[in-house]
Amino acid sequence: MLKKGLLRLGIVFLYLTSLLPFWFLYLISDVLFVVIYYIVHYRRAVVQQNLANAFPEKSVQERRQIERKYYRYLADLIVETVKMITVSEKQIQKRVVATNSELVHEYFAKGKSIIAVAGHYCNWEMAALNFNFVTDKRFMIVYKPLSNEMFDDFFIKIRSRFGGQPVAMKQTLRKMVEYRKELTVSVLVGDQTPVRHEVNYFTDFLNQPTAVFLGIEKIAKTIDAAVVFYDMKRVKRGYYTYTLIPLTETPKETAEHEITDMHVQYLDSMIRREPQYWIWSHRRWKFGPEDLQQ
Description:
alpha/beta, 2 domains, two-stranded antiparallel sheet, globular, acyltransferase activity, membrane
């Protein structure tokens, strides 16, 4: 009971914090950066190892610059995520802009549903909220449930604020087959880490063999959906654009693993362009192909 009470207080605190204006939240972010980078050293060893593996061609000094920029952006991302609790429709449309939303309507005119592949890059959650205003069709946001039920419900409410339909990862294929007679848009994050017993495929990502889910490819072929990639850019603090990059509108004609390799390699190139906006503190490479042979 005490734990639940504290969690409820935490949620109330986050809600009240989200009512603060963006400019004040970024002042909090400036302080938060100092705390997590210089005082707490939050997962700095993980970040440094990930950067060293991904960019062996860069000097230690170059990687350290990326590391520092990453933590500064991570602090911004934290306060922006809190702001999403109460952010207005007007603010979302002002701060996140789709550069080619007409592509969605072109696919719908062809009778094609859309699978939009994102990465943990820039503010992917804010972009997903913005996508609600691009189409009036059913819009599904696939997510990985949190272990804490109270916080999981809390984030479901945030993701569904403007009409999006959150779908738990394990229910994705069933839901999409259920709505196969409708035109839909579904957003999936393409750089999730599979658990070891679910690994079926490794591909090259950021200079190392990386286990990836094949679910996006499987779903696209099952419902014959067009596949696009979210290319996100940070314009300035708190402002983003995203461009929908067509990968294929004929998924059934692609070779095995072709769609998977396409979206992984596009994410790779986006990260290399401005690496500080990817989540480097995540333990993405927990095992390699050699570990599965043991």
